Design the sequence.
C-alpha cells in the first residue's frame, strides 16, 4: 500500500492542526500531527477501527470515541504520531453484523463476547495488513501503540514491528461499564478499570476522565493579575511571555492544548530567561488560584486525604511521572502542597487536645513549631509531630525503615501512632543547640547508613541538625525520608558537603544553594563534594566486604 504523501489537507481540531493524508483507499484515513515524511521511528500510533455509533452519533455504551480522542490528545501533546482510522465496524464483521450483536446484547442481557458467540461470529477478524505495509513504507520498525488490545499488538509483532504499549484510560459510565469489564475478562484487554478508591495513589491526566479536575487543562477559569484565564494551562504558558504581545495571544487560545502549542511555537523564535527557576512558582500561583476560587475543587482535593497524587504523563518527566514512573511528578507534589496547607488550617485547633487525650500525656505541651508537614509539640521529654497529610506510601515507608534508626548515631528511634485522622510520631526531646563546626566523618557516616539501608534524607540543612556531646543529631523526622536512588544520593552528598563546610549558614542562603543543587548546577561552595561521595561509597563497599567475610 502506497501513501500519497503529497496529497494532504489541514484538519483543524480542538487538539491542534492535524494533517489528513490520502491513503489511496477509501477504507483507510491517515492523520499525522506533523509532516509524515518527518515522522521518524517509534512514533505514537493509534490503529483505530471505525465506530459510527459513538464517533458520529455520540453513543455512550462503548469507549471507541473516547479512545480516539485520547489518542489525538496524546499525539498533539507530543507533536509526533499517527492515527490510522480503518473502516472495520464490529471487530471486522461489518456494520450489519455489529447491529445484530448489539441487539442480542440488549435483548438477551449478555455481554459483547457472548453475543458474538451466539451469532456464530469469531471474536475479532480485523485485518491490519495494509497498516503494516504503510508503516514499512515509512521505514517505521517500532511504534508506541496507543491501545489495550493484545490482538493489535500481536498483529504488529508478528510482522517484526517492535511494540511498546500506551494504555488508554476509559471514561466509565453506567452505559458502558459492563462492556468495558467484559473486554478485559473475555477478550484479554488491559483497560485500567480499578475505580474502588482503595489504592494509595490517585492517578490523573486527561481533564475529561476520572480525577481530571486536577489537570491544568480542566475547564476551571481563574482570575489572576487582573485577567480571567480560561484554564491554569493558559496562565502558565502565557507567563513565559509576560508583558509581550504573545501573552494575550496565548490567553485567548480556544483550548488549553492550543495555548500550549502557541507557546511552543513562540519559543522557537523567542528565548526566555530564568524560566527554569520561575516555572514552579508560576504553576503554584495558578493552582492556588484555581483551588481557592473553586470551593468544590478544594473539597475534592481535601477528600483525597493521605493518597499520593500522580500526574500519569508518559512524555513528561518533570510535571508528570514519565513512562517509567521515575519522573519528578512536580504537579502532583504542588497539588499535595496546596492540600497540606488547607489541612493545616482544618486540623490545627484539635491536634494538641487529641495528643494529650489519646497518648495520656500528663505534662503540659509546648508548641515547638509548625511547617508544611505538620505541627511539633514537646512535653520536655518527648517530641510529638502530627502530620497534616503524610501519604499512605510515605507513612508505610517511614514505619518500615524507622526500626533501624537507633543504629545510626545521628538518628533516634521513633514511635508511630494513628489517632483518628491523625498520624503522629514520637521521639526523644533534645535541648536545641545550634549547629557549629563538626567532624566530616559524622555526616559521611550518616549518609553511609542511609545508603546501606536504602533510604535517603532529602532535606539536609543547618536547621534540621543540632550539636550534642555525642555528635550531631537530626531533629526532623517524617516525609523527608525517601527511597534511595543514585540521583538522591548525589543531591544529598552535595547538601551534606555544604552543611559541613558552612554549618552556621543562614537558612535562606542555604536554601538558595540547594535550589541550585536541585537544578544540577556546580558552584565553588560545593567544589569538594566528590571527595565526600568517594568516602561514602568506599565505606559502603567496606561494609559489604565485611558482611561477605
Sequence:
Amino acid at each position: 500500500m502506497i501513501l500519497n504523501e503529497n496529497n494532504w489537507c489541514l484538519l483543524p481540531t480542538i487538539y491542534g492542526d492535524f494533517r489528513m493524508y490520502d491513503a489511496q483507499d477509501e477504507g483507510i484515513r491517515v492523520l499525522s500531527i506533523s509532516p509524515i515524511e518527518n515522522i521518524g521511528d517509534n512514533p505514537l500510533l493509534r490503529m483505530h477501527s471505525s465506530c459510527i455509533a459513538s464517533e458520529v452519533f455520540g453513543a455512550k455504551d462503548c469507549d471507541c470515541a473516547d479512545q480516539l480522542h485520547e489518542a489525538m490528545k496524546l499525539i498533539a501533546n507530543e507533536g509526533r504520531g499517527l492515527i490510522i482510522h480503518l473502516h472495520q465496524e464490529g471487530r471486522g464483521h461489518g456494520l450489519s453484523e455489529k447491529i445484530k450483536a448489539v441487539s442480542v446484547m440488549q435483548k438477551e442481557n449478555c455481554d459483547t463476547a457472548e453475543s458474538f458467540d451466539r451469532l456464530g461470529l469469531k471474536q475479532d477478524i480485523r485485518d491490519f495488513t495494509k497498516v503494516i505495509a504503510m508503516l514499512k513504507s515509512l521505514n517505521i520498525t517500532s511504534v508506541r501503540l496507543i491501545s489495550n488490545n493484545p490482538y493489535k499488538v500481536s498483529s504488529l509483532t508478528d510482522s517484526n514491528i517492535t511494540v511498546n504499549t500506551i494504555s488508554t484510560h476509559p471514561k466509565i459510565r453506567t452505559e458502558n461499564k459492563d462492556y468495558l469489564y467484559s473486554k478485559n475478562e473475555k477478550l484479554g484487554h488491559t483497560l485500567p478499570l480499578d475505580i474502588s478508591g482503595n489504592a494509595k495513589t490517585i492517578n490523573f491526566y486527561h481533564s475529561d476522565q476520572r480525577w481530571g479536575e486536577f489537570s491544568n487543562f480542566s475547564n476551571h477559569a481563574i482570575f489572576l493579575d487582573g485577567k480571567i484565564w480560561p484554564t491554569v494551562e493558559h496562565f502558565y504558558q502565557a507567563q513565559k511571555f509576560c508583558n509581550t504581545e504573545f501573552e494575550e495571544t496565548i490567553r485567548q487560545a480556544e483550548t488549553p492544548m492550543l495555548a500550549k502549542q502557541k507557546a511552543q511555537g513562540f519559543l522557537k523564535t523567542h528565548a526566555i530567561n530564568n524560566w527554569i527557576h520561575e516555572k514552579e512558582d508560576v504553576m503554584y500561583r495558578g493552582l492556588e488560584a484555581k483551588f481557592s476560587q473553586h470551593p468544590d475543587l478544594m473539597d475534592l482535593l481535601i477528600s483525597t486525604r493521605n493518597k499520593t497524587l500522580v500526574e500519569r504523563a508518559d512524555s513528561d518527566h518533570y510535571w508528570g511521572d514519565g513512562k517509567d514512573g521515575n519522573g519528578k511528578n512536580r504537579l502532583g507534589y504542588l497539588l499535595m502542597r496546596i492540600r497540606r496547607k488547607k489541612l493545616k488550617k482544618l486540623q490545627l485547633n484539635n491536634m494538641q487536645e487529641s495528643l494529650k487525650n489519646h497518648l495520656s500525656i500528663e505534662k503540659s505541651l509546648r508548641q515547638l513549631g509548625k511547617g508544611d508537614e505538620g505541627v511539633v509539640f514537646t512535653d520536655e521529654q518527648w517530641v510529638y509531630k502530627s502530620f497534616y497529610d503524610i501519604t499512605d506510601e510515605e507513612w508505610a515507608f517511614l514505619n518500615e525503615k524507622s526500626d533501624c534508626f537507633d543504629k545510626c548515631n545521628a538518628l533516634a528511634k521513633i514511635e508511630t501512632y494513628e489517632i483518628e485522622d491523625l498520624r503522629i510520631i514520637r521521639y526523644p526531646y533534645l535541648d536545641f543547640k545550634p549547629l557549629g563546626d563538626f567532624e566530616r566523618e559524622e555526616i559521611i557516616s550518616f549518609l553511609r547508613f542511609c545508603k546501606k539501608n536504602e533510604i535517603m534524607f532529602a532535606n539536609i540543612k543547618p536547621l534540621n541538625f543540632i550539636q550534642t556531646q555525642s555528635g550531631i543529631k537530626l531533629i526532623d523526622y517524617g516525609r523527608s525520608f525517601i527511597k534511595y536512588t543514585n540521583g538522591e544520593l548525589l543531591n544529598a552528598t552535595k547538601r551534606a558537603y555544604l552543611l559541613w563546610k558552612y554549618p552556621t549558614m543562614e537558612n535562606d542562603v542555604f536554601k538558595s544553594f540547594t535550589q541550585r543543587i536541585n537544578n544540577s548546577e556546580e558552584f565553588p561552595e560545593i567544589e569538594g563534594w566528590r571527595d565526600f561521595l568517594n568516602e561514602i561509597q568506599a565505606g559502603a563497599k567496606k561494609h559489604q566486604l565485611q558482611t561477605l567475610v
Remarks:
- Residues 330-358 form the longest helix (29 residues).
- The two ends are 66 Å apart (CA to CA).
- Residues 171 and 209 are 6 Å apart (CA to CA).
- The chain has a mean pLDDT of 89.
